[in-house]
Amino acid sequence: MKLTGKIVFLTGASSGIGEPTAYAFAAEGARLILCARRKDKVDAVAQQALKKGAQAIHTFELDVRDHAAVAAAVAALPSEWAAIDILVNNAGLSRGLDKLYQGHIEDWDEMIDTNVKGLLYVTRAVVPGMVERGSGHILNLGSTAGELPYPNGAVYCATKAAEKSINDGLRQDLLGTPLRVTSIDPGMVETDFSKVRFRGDEARAAKVYQGVIPLTPDDIADAIVWAASRPAHVNIAHVLMTSVTQANSIMFHREQTGTTGSTR
Fold first, then answer.
1. The whole model's pTM is what?
2. Helices 217-228 and 18-27: angle between axes, nearest 10 degrees
3. Which residues are catalytic?
């Protein structure tokens, strides 16, 4: 399927996996709707995406945790941007790495509100239009953590298990329509993920990637665009991907120590 001229709605587009995903769709000649909580960062990504081939770009600030804001933003899209072809639910984060009984309620709320409720809010706002038009593809960002929980990450893992169930349930609910639903489930990816998790502690975040070969954000962007560009009758249900130094969410090999441990 050619992506030239397709309207791609990408949440969390300001950094991490979202930024290279915007560039990857831009290189295919897509039209991009980019949003995130940091409007200045989104606008910077938009400028680069135009240079990389995007036909046109529409940006706005959005916190997916705000149901009313999500509904209003989608409803307010200019007519030339309203017929969304591809939705990429990328916005997400992790906070803390604590034993469940020692966890912080505010961290739980932020993860659940972003990773689960934000995913639902955006999906609810966009997908009815796709059904009405008889065309569309929803791609959700999952994780190996949704397949197998790891120690000290129970709530984050639960949000990604929820994403997996929502993804699969939505695909069932759309059976009989031409719409497609895909979950892209990466393992360790070297982004600001760990720095966000540890609230800016760069030294602690850097230790996460020591001795391993993580995936890159470009790897994930490539998988997203690959899934979106399959023939219209082909639905890629799940893409579970890790680097060669990771077996699953609780096993990976560190060169310096030869040990295994938990990750994303």
1. 0.94
2. 50
3. 156
